[in-house]
User: What shape does this take?
Amino acid sequence: ALLISSPAERARARHLVLAYAELIQADIEYVAISADTVEADLKQRRELLGEGALAWSDAPPVRAALTGSILVLDGLERAERNVLPTLNCLLEARELPLDDGRFLVAAKRHQQLLDQGAGGHQAARLVPVHEHFRVIALASPSPPFPGRALDPPLRSRFQATLVPPASAEELDAELSSLASLPLLVRQQLISAASTLDELERQTFDRSIDFQQASTDASGQNFFSFSTSALIEQCRATFANHDGSTCERASFPFNKSLSNAGQVNAGAVLCRTYPPLLTGLGLSGSCDPALRALERLGTIDSSQVDPKSHDMSTSQILHGNFWCGPLQADAMARLRQDLVAGRNVLLVGPRGSGKSALVRALGRSIDSDFRNFALHHDLTVRDLLQRRCTDEATGASGWEDSPLVAAARAGSVAVLDGVHRLPKGNLAAALGRICADGEMDLPDGTRLVHERRLPCSPSLTEQQRAYPMPSGFRIIALAEPGHWLTPEVAALFSTHVLPEISDRDVEVALQALVPLAHATLRKQAARLLAKHQASCGQLSSREKTATQLSMRGLLRAVRRAAVLTSNDASSSLRTTLKETLLTRFLPLRIQVAIDSWLDAAEIPADACSSTASKTYVSNSSPASHDVDNADILRIGGLTLQRREPQQRQLVPAPHYFASACADRSVAQILSCEAAGERAILLVGNQGVGKNVAVDRALQLLRAEREYVQLHRDTTVASLTLLPVLEAGRLRYEDAPLVRAARFGRVCVLDEADKAPTEVLVVLRALMEDGELVLGDGRRLLAGSALETAKAAAKAAATCAARSDVGSQLGNQPVADLPPEIIPVHDDFRLWVLANRPGYPFHGNALFQECGDIFTSLVVDNPEPDSEIALLEYTAPSLAASSRRHELRCLAKAFADLRGMAEKGSVSHPYSMREAVAVAKHLEHYQQETVAKALTNILAFEAFDPVVRAQLAEAFEGAGVNDVKAAFDHAFGSSAAGSLAERHENAFDIRYLQSGSSTPRTPAGMPKHGKVDPTGAPHVGGNTWAGGSGGSDTAGLGGRGGPYRLWDGNPVHQISDEDKAQVSDEARARARELAQQAFQDRLREIDRMDARSWSMYASLLEQVEPQIAQFKQILRHSQDRRTERVWLRNKAEGELDDTRLVEGIAGDRLVFKRRGASVQTGTEGHTRRRILHFVMDCSGSMYRFNPYDGRLDRMLEAACLILESMEGQHDRYDFAISGHSGESATIPFVPFGQPPESRGDRLKLLQQMAAHTQFCLAGDTTIEATTMAVQAALRQLRRHGLDDEASEDAEQPKAFVVVLSDANFRRYRMRPEWWGQALTREPRVEGHAVMIGSLGDEAQRLQASLPPGRGHVVMDTSTLPQTLRRIFEQAGIFDTGNLG
Assistant: This one.
């Protein structure tokens, strides 16, 4: 049978199966299907017995077939393709070949074979399937729900039954049994449940396309409601509210806290239906439900927004966690649900204090909390148990995860970071334990709630079921996002932890940072308030990039507080900007952050930090005077130097003490003085991050453990190194663990190259003081270590008291258990990373986990420091007449870095390249600087445009003959250059004009005479190209057939004079314009040498920008097409996580790189949909004299057309136009890019001609709407319009509309344009204003949604604008918006 239900009602379907099994007195075998399910989970798995012997262990389907149990397959839609067909034959014919040689056959067939005389060895291998064996599967149909559609051969083997939600009558019967549930609350809950179910049904009924079912008008999936979760929440909340039940007695109970918060219908609904809560990122998917429930009066703002609660002003300090009113209320509500027997989910922004609050909760109730830091690499099996081998015998076995260990001990399991798990894994692992009170483990055993377990130990052992104490609870911690599905929400009681209010920040800082003086606290509080108030002006990605958590604010204040000089306030500004990495943010965001700092009255930065001013280092790296002292003094800071046990681990760098290098070292040492245990150094390549770190370690005499990270780094490889000896698997400590044990500094280099989930797990160690290693040991520090020591001391005391022979007065020895590794107080974690953003290829390190570090920016050196370093590198040149060459070299590289910041060149030329040139010149002094440059600039040998830019930069800085040296080394690029600029038909330049009054009445339109002298004609009706007159082709007049300019100043008549043109004259003018337009199109079709010369001259203007934009497109990365490790393969590299299976002989123990399953077939690249909309209205031609908008539009079109050449496999693009005549002018349809430059020239000429001959008017908003719809249709053609995809919330198509911002003339409201740009969530629209009358473009930009409006008055900046658009939308795999 196949039970079909919505994901939210999966527990209801599972309860139905359990009730059926109980009714017929049948055992069940349970398999939670996930994307990690493999054949061994469905058939048999090899086990080691020791001494090299092997045995086969049956999987649940085989055990069920042999014993006649009910096999439950939960979550068929979560399985990977072609995994479940393993069971097809067992489902239908009751046959299955096993790996141990046995063959399962149907009982009747087995008897027939025996009756026919089958015997001997062949008969012994045949095993009958029990006649009572049954299979019940649970699934949700996909579509419309997320998941994979069932394979037709598998689906046809089941008889399906729909499991609907509980009806109103059933819900009323369930809730009526709760005596303490008020009648009004019961009625409100039943009404709300019926409303939500009806809204979901209406969503399906309204859907025309089945794939779009369960999607509301906003484009978000409708969040299914779980009646089962509502019933469970009501039972926990309203049953035996006095806390006298066995369930409550097994958990620490406090009546005053258990009844915290107003228990009403709204509070219950918000905990069972998360979209009603603010702060989860789900409200957009349930706006109709929220409005409906508000109309019913079931909920109000006090339940939806935690900040609106009327709370006391109590403020408590729990260890290092400050508990204000909001936090105290959240803690009370959490405890209320825990006491009531519910598992809870706590959601809050990164750095808001979720983990600290849970630790404080654990201390307040004196309960054992076991932390389990989660990451993306964890499978469903890893969440429960892991494979291991016995060190003595080599036999394979299973070791409990912290979650299962907590379940066995009756403790509270804290699952930190559930949002990082792959979709489906959380529900697969926790579905049974949260909803049914049972946990099926990979080793074949089962944990059952102690109240439901038989009392007979023999029966318990026979069923392989073991008791789970009633005190076991799960607290899941997560950040907001669409990872929270209805199936997961139904497992927990959901709570939101709001960020600390600005009014409480100052009080919290006073408690947590006692050294901070009052001014610092006030400034920090004002900054946080200003930051929270201004976030509405930023886009979602800009909000993420500028997120200032309480954790980050504490670090900045703590670091500034240790500086005792008068510059402490300015140091706060510096540390705050470093915390946000403003150095690498767009200029607009930098300006916004500076405005926040100014509003908080935080003074401007001093020239350098206090520590760097007073830092005194040796004049050369060979000086070791400082090594004789045990105290290191830096200005007002004093640091105790260490006594290394292994001096070979203390770095001895080749260090030159320039001002820039000293400043970097001082920054690191000031963090050490402030007690910061985790530091993140970010900067361009080659700026001296490694040297600064090594110098700081040398000064501190600190031992170093160094790790070079890369894309293949895993959490396991970062912590432990598996070793296989004589068939036994053991683990050796990796550098991180060694550093933690022995108090060393662990340096993680190139951290941005490692997967983000690898570094995110470090938060558990640095913030929570606990990290579970792959071999079961735990690293403990801080309060976690103190708790473990207290528990060990208590255990030792109990053991001493129970020891009859113990002597009075003897103190028990409290040794920590061997699985606990204390983290040394001197342990530090210093992480090095390249700056975020293009052109660096790193991952989103800072965005994901940057707030767990104290961030330091290591920037490029100032000219004096770089010159000093070059002179130190090349002392012979510095002492000769060529010293000026080193100065020219430093200046040139500084100019190149400035060009890289502006986007003119892509490579950020660093100090490392400059030093390489100086080294070369020192060894080969007969060579010129230009010749030496060819060694490091050979990468640009095949890019003549960049070569020309570099040559110009170096020669401009005083380095001679660079272009000649490049041509000699790389070959001349003259053959590939464009011709010199010719007369350009696109070069339309008007002169500033005045007003005019026509001297003749309005008549019939005509072209007019051509004046060969080119003299100006104003106000008449005779000459073509005149201005401010009547009837003839010209500008600024009335009644003419089309626009024409003679090169003289333009004069404009009034609107009243224009209104005097008759309708007959207007119609005739339109006919003449259409005729002239068709003549121009026929002329465009005749391509000749002169036409090519025109295109070449235009192309020359944007050739550098084309090179930039092409490089941007080439380096763009799509996260979904990034190659990942594919595990459970029969070939590839050995997977360290499956070594036990490999020893046992399993085949699927390898991993290999390939495309993720979400991208489809391996090697497939998903094409991005881009739609560019060009403004071809008459105002482009008319107002070109003021700002050159038509020129910019044509240059932009040329830039796009040329840059897209060769990108058709990655981008499907279209170009359309709009004017007063039409809202969509198809220049380049999707899938039909121009094949040659001749075709591209024709397109540009057509655009220019249209601006001259079209009707007046503006259809920008209509054109935007139609372009968005066209892009959405193209998405569907490509099969990318998948609402259930993993990143469905991310845009997959982009519309860029170029406009001259001429809105006031046509009385259009900017809000209309903003609505058109943002109407469809799967298509991201952006507006680029390339013209403006006065400040209209800037005002229009300010009126559009944040991040959607851009002003470009210089075509050279257009590639950077498009780059920012793509980075903001997430096309580039960057860690920031840089």
